[in-house]
Amino acid sequence: MVKTDGKRKRNKSEAAKKKADTGETGSLDRLMNIVADKRFIATVLLYISVCAVLLITHIGGVTYRADTIADYDIVSPRNIQYEDTSATSAMKKRITDNVSAAYKIDPAFKQDVEAVFKNILEADSLAPGDVTRKYYIGKLREFGLSEEMIILLYSLEKDQPVQLRLQTYTILKRLDTNVVIDDNELENIGTKIEELAREEGVSTGLVPAIREIILSAIKKNLVEDPEATLARKSKALEDVMPVMKTLRKGEIIVRKGDRILPHHIKALKTLGMLSRSTSWMKIVGFAFLIGFGFLVIGLCMRTITPDIYGDEKRFIIFCILMFFTAATSVVICSFATFQGAGYLQGAPIAIFTILVCVLLRPVLSLVAVPVLALVITLTLNLQLEHFLVALIAGLAAHFYSIKPQDKDSMLKAGAAVSLSNMAAIFILTLIKFTTWQQAVLDIFVFGALNGIVAFVVSTGSLPAFERLFNITTSHRLLELSNPEEPFLKQMLINAPGTYYHSFFVGNLAENVAETLGVNALLVRIACYYHDIGKIKRPYFFAENRMEGHSQLDEISPTLSALVISSHVKDGVEMALDYNLPDEIRDIIQQHHGTTKISYFHNKAVAAADGGDVPEESFRYPGPKPQTVEAAIVMLADSCEAAIRSINKPTPKLIETTVNSIVEDRLFDRQFDECNITLKQIDTLRLTLTKTLANVYHSRMEYPDLEDFKDQRKKEQAKTTAKVQAANGKR
Which parts of 56-107 fold into alpha helices (H)? Predict the structure, then answer.
């Protein structure tokens, strides 16, 4: 039994060994390491977040509403017949408009009849040419009586007008006026008047007169009867049939981009399509699309910008910017109800581009912007022109954001986005013209807003990213270059030699960095701060001492070396307290590497009289330069200090000194941990030599005033002697 257990253990051990040899355990470990990697966690969270914000509009179904824009073609799935409510309403309106209004007679019409007879009787008593008689005749014309009837009435004998008046009153009493009046009813009333007149014994010649007088009074006193009019219109609509329309299977009800009208809503309701349920297949497809976009951007980042891909802090910043862009695009699509508001998609893309260029690397935006804009356009069902405007906004923002030393780069980028978007929308408007009002709104409002919003948001959010992640940007570096910065002012007052040395090294190193194509602005500003640790004990350093006794001569070489090297540690602590960017703090820590403090080491060796003096006590704590920028600062600092210590430097001596320092750093293996190449080191050496030779070139010695006067007298004497000799020969 024991043997069997031992055999099993040996078999398990051999299996584990075999699995380790075949790499199975290594693969599992690598997988676990990937899962535990912060970048992997950030990518997964970003993917989930972006999918959530972009696909939320596709989840939960959609209810179509009138006066909204269709985001895709809506097609009928079967044959149906439905009422076209708009057409039916229009037909009913035409019918009701043709129905004449109903009127009723105002009882006051009898007073108008009395006024007619009063005018007749008053005028009949006057002479034919009398002015007052003409006035009464004019009143009858205004009443509506014809000329023939007026002549007839004034041709009556004396008692006939009075008799006609009495007969008319009798007819009015018998006449039923409580009826709804229209054109037909007026004719009926006229006929009734004639019948009553004959019954009252009115002569045949005067019957038309009574009819005209009463009907004229009635017409002048007609009042509309709303209830009767409404009843007539309702009766006219009783036999109206609704307008029916037929939809065939596969026929487009509403085209993408068209406005949904009420009759579309009726058709969709009949089809049972008024509410659109969630299409999970579509959501899965969009999720794969987003994942593919992430894969493309991730592979390009890993290939083109491996330093950002490997830096967890910068990688997280990139993830935040991507999520912000996606979320902002969704907000714009959700709340922008104006036609053409999709052009505002240029704003989040421009913001993303500016911040990526400033915070990370400009080339990264060229890769990420097209992919991100395309994914957002497809996922949110935007138009092709919206994608084009967003892409142009990203390119314009990129062009003006790649100039790190331009303080107004963000303002210029915002202006470029506005102008380029306005031009792009103008061209698209010419191709797809709608109305002049819409064109003006698209070009001068939506186009210009992209740049304005991009500038405001980028400028406002940049300091937050700088402080929160302590990241170095060109804008932060330009702030640190201000001579009013506390450290620089303190250095100028307490360590003026170090101050001028730092600024000179900064200009020297910047020239070298530009030649090598690295971050020249970072190199220059790092040089300004690389010796801030000397502010604590400035009098121990040669550049801050006047001619005279050095306090380092009074202490041991080991302690002197410790004091000199401590300025690196002090500088790092001060950088941490002042919250200087990490890149500058790293250069402060690395600008001496682990080089040997030769002067005090040699002094210690001489004092030891052959004894063993370990170099470790006379070396800077390091680490060695980790970047090309740190290597440039190291060599520029060492070479400038060495050349400044030479009494009368010549170009040859400068070249020899620079070569010696570069060779010493190479042999000391100070550049083993940074990615600088031998070709770059050679270019750096030549640039330092040329620049230092131009600065420290020999100058001619000018004589003082007395020497100049003596020389002038000698020249005048020689000239006089020559003139006299010439005259003598003559």
Answer: 85-98
> Is the Cβ–Cβ distance between 15 and 25 less than 8 Å?
no
Q: Where are the beta strands (DSSP E) in 179-243?
A: 222-224
Tokens of 330: 């969704």
Number of neighbouring beta carbons within 10 Å of residue 167? 19
Measured between alpha carbons, how far is 247 from 76 in angstroms, rounded to an integer?
7
Res. 21: pLDDT tops 80: no
Q: Indicate the SS3 state at residue 63.
A: strand
pLDDT digits (tens, 9 = 90+) for 437-496: 888 888 888 889 999 999 999 999 988 888 888 888 888 888 888 888 888 888 888 888
Per-residue model confidence (pLDDT) at position 458 = 92
Amino acid at 486: P
Is residue 255 a contact partner of residue 70, using CB atoms and an 8 Å limit? yes
Q: Which of 220, 193, 222, 221 is nearest to 209 (CA)?
A: 193
Query: How many Å from the N-terminal Cα to the C-terminal Cα in the chain?
Result: 142
Question: What does the buried/exposed string (b/e) look like for 299-338 if buried means 16 or more CB atoms within 10 Å of the residue's CB?
Answer: ebbeeebeebbebeebbbbbbbbbbbbbbbbbebbeeeee
Residue pair 634/681 in contact (Cβ under 8 Å)? The answer is no
Cis peptide before 262 (omega within 30 of 0): no
Question: What is the DSSP-derived secondary structure letter of residue 25?
Answer: H
Average pLDDT on 246-272 reads 77
Whole-angstrom Cα distance, residue 317 to residue 328? Answer: 16
Question: Which stretches within 305-408 are classed as H helix?
Answer: 306-310, 312-335, 346-359, 362-379, 384-401
Please state, in angstroms and as integers, the Cα–Cα distance from residue 715 to each residue in 102, 432, 684, 724, following that order.
131, 88, 50, 15
pLDDT band at 364 (very low <50, low <70, confident <90, very high): very high
Cα separation of 683 and 565, whole Å? 29
87 burial class (0-12, 13-18, 19+ CB within 10 angstroms)? middle
pLDDT at 258 over 70: yes
CB 368 within 8 A of CB 317: no
**Residue 387 phi/psi, 5° resolution?**
-65, -40
